[in-house]
Each structure stands twice: as C-alpha cells, then as structure tokens.
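Field log, afternoon session.

UNIT: design team B
ACTIVITY: writing a sequence onto a fixed backbone
BACKBONE:
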C-alpha cells in the first residue's frame, strides 16, 4: 500500500465521524473493558440503561445457549452475576457494533458479515479456552472485530468494494486478494485506520491489520495467529463470506499454526476434528442469534 492510499483511507475514515449511529455507550464500554476492576458492575448497568435497544439485545444474546446459562437473565445486572462482567461487556460491544453500522446500502449481505464476525468471535474464544490462554474475552473481542475494515469499505469505499466482492465471488479468490487486485488496499488497511480513530487496544489493532499477514505482525503475534486460524475455520465451515473459496486450507501446515504452537505447546493436543464438529453444532445457534441481534435480512449462504 502506498503512502497516498494510506492517507486517502485515513481521510475518508474521518467521514465516519459525521454518521450519527454510533451508540453513546460504545466508547465508555471500550474504556471499561480495557481497564477492569470489580466496582464496574453498576457502571456497566448504568451505561446500558441509557440505551434500551442495546439492553434488550444484550439480554436476548445472554439467553442464547451459546453462552451456556440454564436460566436466561432478567436484567443486565443479573446477566453480569451469571455470566461475569467481561462476558457481558463483550456481548454489549457486539450489540453496539450492530447499531454503529446499520445495514443500509451495504454491497454485501450484512447478515453474512455478522455471522462471520460473531462466528469468528466464538471460535476464537473456544480456541483460546482449549489452549488455556490468559484472556478468552480478548480472543472473543479480537475475533469479533477482526474484519471491521469491511464496514469501513462498505461505508466509504462502497463502489470499489462492490467491485472487489464481485471479483472474489466470480473467481473464488479470497476477499483480501480481490481487494488488493481491484482497490490497491484491503479491509485490513481500512480497519487499521478505524481502529486508530477509535483508539482500540494495540493488540486488537494488530489483529485487525495483520490477520491475513500474520508473519508481519510484531507484538501480538500469537493472538493474530489465533484469529487467523479462527477466521479460516469459519470460512471452511458455513460461516464464511457467503461464497465458495477455491483455495483449499490446511490449518496445520499454515504458518500461523507454527507461530501459535511456539507460544502454546498444548496446541498439538487440540482435537481439530472434534473442534470442527463443535463448531458445526453451534452454526444454527449463531444464525439464530445474528437474526435476533443484527436484524433478519434473508440469508443466502
Ligand atoms: Fe479478513
Ligand atoms: Fe474474516
């Protein structure tokens, strides 16, 4: 990517400031999530009470079998007690993202995008639990936000992005390959500009900018590799970008696998076949959750 393209992306991303739909609770929630302590249960409940639509979506999401509660919570505070503060914060951020980018005039089916993002979030979180990494909620957030550059491309480069999508669909190539060929930059570059504008944490920003170029990531390579593999797993199953990708994937021979196994020796013990079965079992539930939280645009996968 040339310097002038990087400048154009930054300038156009600034236009997002003029869009009214970013929920007021989004930035404070991000700050709370980045700076955790015990006294924040009331603070989260207070913030969420300002936005009844987000509160209702959060409760709906918290009641999903994907989060494993036997009794659906009746209030945000109840959800925090049952699920834990960090889980509720990540659920809330998921709902905020849906509101921040309402599904109007997208060149792609927003339902497919959200299924991929939420699917990747849940896969990364489960992968992280299997590896016993330190921070499963961070893995969820990284998976949820990894393709945030799609939204930038939909909103501020919609014509160019529509051409890139059409190329990817027609040729069965990966989307970042088609973007590079037709636009000269990818959703990773666009996402990085948005991550900087939103002051996202450095490790999440690195995931956004390098999940298709893991070897170029510097500080958070293990997290970037985990999200790269989670993204591939989703695209291999029914949680991709809504078209057939010709490229065949072998997770274990992917460079990200070697990077992750250097950090987590127990990666070798993860039963991938079983893991993909678990993912298949969750797919229907993810479809239902996305329809409930992000609207029910007719699906075509
Ligand atoms: Fe991506
Ligand atoms: Fe992705």
């Amino acid at each position: 990517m040339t310097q002038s393209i990087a400048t154009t992306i930054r300038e156009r991303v600034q236009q997002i400031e003029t869009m009214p739909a970013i929920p007021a609770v989004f930035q404070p929630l991000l700050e709370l999530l980045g700076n955790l302590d015990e006294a924040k249960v009331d603070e989260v409940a207070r913030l969420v009470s300002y936005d009844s639509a987000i509160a209702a979506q959060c409760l709906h999401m918290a009641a999903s079998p994907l989060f494993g509660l036997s009794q659906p919570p009746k209030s945000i505070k109840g959800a925090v007690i049952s699920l834990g503060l960090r889980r509720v914060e990540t659920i809330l951020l998921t709902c905020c993202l849906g509101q921040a980018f309402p599904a109007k005039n997208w060149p792609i089916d927003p339902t497919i995008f959200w299924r991929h993002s939420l699917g990747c979030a849940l896969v990364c979180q489960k992968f992280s639990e299997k590896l016993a990494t330190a921070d499963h909620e961070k893995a969820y957030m990284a998976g949820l936000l990894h393709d945030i550059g799609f939204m930038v491309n939909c909103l501020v480069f919609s014509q160019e992005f529509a051409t890139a999508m059409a190329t990817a669909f027609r040729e069965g190539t990966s989307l970042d390959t088609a973007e590079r060929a037709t636009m000269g930059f990818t959703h990773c570059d666009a996402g990085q500009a948005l991550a900087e504008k939103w002051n996202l944490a450095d490790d999440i920003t690195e995931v956004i900018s390098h999940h298709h170029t893991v070897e170029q990531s510097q500080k958070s390579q293990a997290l970037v590799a985990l999200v790269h593999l989670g993204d591939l797993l989703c695209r291999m199953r029914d949680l991709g970008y809504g078209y057939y990708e010709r490229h065949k994937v072998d997770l274990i021979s992917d460079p990200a696998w070697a990077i992750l196994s250097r950090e987590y020796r127990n990666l070798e013990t993860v039963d991938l076949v079983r893991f993909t079965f678990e993912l298949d079992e969750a797919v229907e539930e993810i479809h239902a959750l996305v329809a409930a939280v992000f609207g029910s645009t007719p699906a075509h996968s």
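LOG NOTE: The first helix runs from residue 3 to 14.
NEXT ACTIVITY: expression trials, pending approval
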